[in-house]
Amino acid sequence: MDLSTYITIIISTIFINNFILSRFLGLCSFIGVSKNTLPSVSMGLAVTFVTTMASIITWLIYNYILLPYNLEYLRTLSFILVIASFVQFAEIVIQKKAPALYKVFGIYLPLITVNCAVFGAAVLNTDVFFLHGHAVPGSFMKSLIQGFGAGAGFTLAMLIMSGIRERLEYADVPRSMKDIPITFIIASLMSMAFLGFSGFKI
Amino acid sequence: MKMMGEFVKGLWRENPTFRIVLGLCPTLAVSTSVSNGIGMGVAATFVLVGSNIFVSLIRGIVPEKVRIPCFIVIIATFVTIVDLLMKAYAPALSRSLGMFVPLIVVNCMVLGRAEAFASKAPPFKSILDALGMGIGFTWALILISAIRESLGNGTILGITISRSFEPPLFMILAPGALLTIGILIALINYLTMKWKAK
After folding, report:
1. Distance from the CA of B74 to the CA of which of A26, A83, B80, B187 falls in 20 to 30 A?
2. Domain ranges, ordered by start, for chain A
3. Quick one: average pLDDT of B161-179?
4. Domain extents for chain B?
C-alpha cells in the first residue's frame, strides 16, 4: 500500500465525511461537552486515542475470531464489549502510570464508552474494508488510519464549535434559542461549510 | 393513573429527542425519509422495551459495579435480534438504515432509560416507561423526517405532494437535519415557556 491511499483516507475522514458533521456520529458529546475549548480538545484527544485503539482491536477480533468461525452476527455484541472493557482498562492504566495525562483526558474516558463515534468507527471499518467475508488488501493499516482520522475529524469539529460557543456567551440570543437550539444551528452552518469539501477529487 | 404517568411522560414532557436531547445520532442520520424514520422508531422501541424488561428483572441481583457492562450486553443482544430480523424480513429497510441499526446499541437513550429508570423500577412500570419513550422517539423521528422529506424531496412516504417548487437538496443532506432539529427544539422551548407563563 502506498502513502497516497493513507492520505486519501485521512483527508476523506477528516474533511469530506467528517464524523460529526456529515455522518452524525458522536453528536451527544459534541453538543454536551463543547462549551469551552480546553475540555473539548481533551475530549477530542481521548476520542482519537480510543477510536484508533478500538479500530486495531476490533479488526483483530473480526478477522481472526468472528470471520473464521462464521460468527459475523456477534459483531455488535463483541465490539461493544471489547470497546467498553478497553476503555475501562485504559482508564485504570493511565490513572496509575500517567497521572498528568489522566488529568488531561482521563476523566473523559468513561463518557466515551457509549460514544457513537468509537463504535461507529469500528462498524464502518468492517463495513468498508471487508468485502464478501474477506479482508481487502492492506485492510489492517486502512482500518487503523480510518480510526485515527475519525478521531482527528471529531477533534477538529469540537475545536471549531467550542471556539464559536465561547464567543456566543456574550451574544444576545433569544431565550428559547439559548444553548442547545443555537448550537444545532451553528452546527448546521458548519456542516454546510464542510459540504464544500465534498467536491474534492482524490 | 400513576402507571399512565410513566407512559405519558415520554410523549411530551420528557420526550427523549426534544426535551432531554438524547439519542441524536440515529435521529438525524436516518430521518431523510418518513419510511426510514418509522423503521428506526419501531426498531429502537423494540430494543427499549426488551432491554428495560430484562434490566428491571436483574436489578438487585447484579452488583452495582458491573451493572453498566451487564446493561450493555442486554441491549446489544436485543439490537442483534432486531438487526437479524430486519435483514430477514425487511431487507430494503435494513439496507437503507445501514450501520445505524447496530448503532442503536450506543444510543444514549436506551442506556439512559436502563440506568435512570429500569434499574430502579418493577418490570411492568419499566415496560410502560419504555413504550412511552419509544413512541415519543418515534413521533419525533416521523416529524423530523416528514419535514426533511417534504422540503428536500417534495414527497412524503414516496408520494409526490407538490411540484410547485424545486426541492432544495440541502434539506436531505446533513446541514438540513441539524437546522431542522435546532429550529424544532427552539419552537418547543418557546411554546413551553408561553404555556408556563399563562
Report:
1. A26
2. 21-169
3. 83
4. 2-197
Collect all residues with Cβ–Cβ distance below 8 Å to B49 and sequence separation of at least 6.
Answer: B127, B130, B131, B134
Entry pTM: 0.88
At B194 the pLDDT is: 87
What's the ipTM?
0.87
Question: Taking Cα atoms as reference points, which of A20, A124, A149 lies closest to residue A62?
Answer: A124
Residue at grid coordinates 447484579: B62
Chain B residues within an 8 Å CB radius of A182: 182, 186
Total Cβ atoms within 10 A of residue B167? 16
Q: Cα–Cα distance between B137 and B70 in angstroms, integer? A: 24
CB of A76 closer than 8 Å to CB of A44: no
Question: How far is the CA of B145 from the CAs of B13, B39, B131, in angstroms?
Answer: 21, 11, 21
Contact list, B79 vs chain A (CB under 8 Å): 76
CB proximity list for B120: less than 8 A, separation 6 or greater: B59
Answer yes or no: are the C-beta atoms of A188 and B178 closer than 8 Å. yes
CA A36, CA A129: separation in Å to the nearest integer? 36
Position B198 pLDDT exceeds 80 = no
Model pLDDT, residue A202: 62
Nearest-angstrom CA–CA distance, B43 and B128: 17
Tens of pLDDT, residues B22-32: 778 778 888 88
Residue scoring higher pLDDT (B26 or B86): B86
Task: Tell me which residue in B103, B170, B190 faces A123 most closely, judged by beta carbons.
Answer: B103
Amino acid code (one letter) for B27: T
Q: How many CB pairs under 8 A join A and B?
A: 123
